[in-house]
Design goal:
Radius of gyration: 19 Å
Structural class: alpha/beta
Order of helices and strands: HHHHEEHEHEHEHEEHEHEH
Number of helices: 11
Number of strands: 9
Amino acid sequence: MSREKLRSLGLDLPLLPTTSVGSFPKPDELQQARTRWARGLISRADLEALERRATEFWIRTQEELGIDVLVDGEQYRGDMVTYFAENMRGFEIGGLVRSYGNRYYRKPIIVSEVRWERPITVSWWRFAQSLTSRPVKGMLTGPYTVMDWSFNEYYPDRRATCLALAREIRKEVEALIEAGARIIQIDEPALSVRPQELPLAREALQVVTEGLPAYFISHACYGAFEKIYPQMLALPVDNFDLEMSNSNLDLLEHFKRSPFTKDLSFGVVDVHSHVIEDVETVVARIRQGLEVVPAEALWIDPDCGLKTRTVEEAIAKLRVIVEAVRRVRASLA
């Protein structure tokens, strides 16, 4: 069981651990600084100083709220795929494409053999972990999503592209573990886009995780999971972090028909709504989750990263989560 794996890694987490998916909103001064840096008006060092200040703000905020497993907030990233493409060989960065709503990202183009040359996220993980005694997740984007969200002008097909990325991304995971990370989240939001390629996504994650001493989480969101469930349970991770609230917990019906056999990070607040859920609503959602997933296997978090909310909204949503979990824990004691 995953609880045993967590303990073997020296992690003794409370029942219903609270966490976040990864991204938090950037403060205005950092947003403005990123624009000035892009125009060559400030140095990289000036920008990084603000990124570190914002990261520290979010670590302190999570601690004050009482979150159990922290994230660094991704204050140093733009897009979740472009950031990794910018830091690996074999990519060029293309023009803007629309991802969703009014959000755009610069789509990477694979133009030669992809190569991991140096740690990409490790220094940020080290910095975040140095600020707290609570565990901080290592976080990176998985090979299937990097492949799916990039143009490929080098490899012969999608499988060759995905597996080449998997072999290189594994090196980033190894570097995080070497640095001390015990919980590593591999984001794969493209997982359900092409159900026929689920075996490829599984093979790639096997390459990334096999034999490595960490508790692995895979985050996916806003997809047609009913098309890949329960087959997705074969992916080699310990925990799936899923968007649940935005779709009115409809996945729970699928879990009733085919039991969910992994740990589940259960999204209990909608990150695409300005509305701050009340505590009673979130308590009810957690209780619905407990009807189909054992308490020992259930983690609680938002549906997805909170970067689209304001700082105040993100903090308010996290505060509601912590209070709801406190009430449910008390009832389970």
